[in-house]
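tool_call predict_complex ligand=flavin mononucleotide
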Amino acid sequence: MTSIPKRLVVGISGASGMIYTERFLMAVPVDYEVHLIFSETGQQVMATENGWQVHQEDFRTFIEKKYGQNRQLATFIRHEAGNHYAPVASGSFKVQGMVIIPCSVKTLAGVAGGYADTLIGRAADVSLKEKRPLVLVVRETPLNQIHLKNMLSIDQAGGIILPASPGFYHKPETIEDLADFIAARILNVLHIPQSLYPGWRERLE
Ligand SMILES: Cc1cc2nc3c(=O)[nH]c(=O)nc-3n(C[C@H](O)[C@H](O)[C@H](O)COP(=O)(O)O)c2cc1C
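tool_result ok
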């Protein structure tokens, strides 16, 4: 049996919560190749909330400016959302899974409806048809019945709804601590090793 390359697809749509994206991308193990796809609004909200201008600097440059040099980071490759010729548009391009973080309710609706008009929607549709893990970090509040039905559809199709809803029992002191909680949960559901947070009471056992 051939092993699946250490590759992830990460879609970034125009919901609030770009700190989740930033901390998740920082937590992906260094030997992974991450294919990034921003929606148009995703790029704008990233610039507004985090100050990362994705067309001007790559993720490593942005992170090293913000947190200091020599960070251990994965390899990042960015694709334009309109580029349906990108490798991640095809099921023949093997990846371990896809995460949409943050996932707007518009992108949620697109994926739930199989409406693959952008590369994010197409790659998500590919994940579901190929029975690969697809994690949607949905961020909206409150939720209406349409959002809830769309989330149910994703779950029924084999996707994972992982709301941007951090816990507080680990006594977070910073916004980064809260975001790391979600980053750890995503890596856990993808069965990718993470050292951000052990499981509850795992330290004691
Ligand atoms: C600053 C800002 C914050 C937003 N926050 C959210 C949000 O948390 N959740 C959401 O579903 N939409 C949010 N939106 C609206 C989406 O960006 C909008 O519906 C957009 O069409 C989503 O497109 P996309 O999914 O292709 O990125 C926000 C928009 C802006 C400008």
